[in-house]
Amino acid sequence: MSPTHPSEKALFITFSNTTQAMNMEECCSRYGLPGQLVPVPRDIKASCGLAWKTTPEQKEPLTQMMKREKIRPEKFVLQP
Question: Per the confidence metrics, is the pTM higher than 0.85?
Answer without folding.
Answer: yes
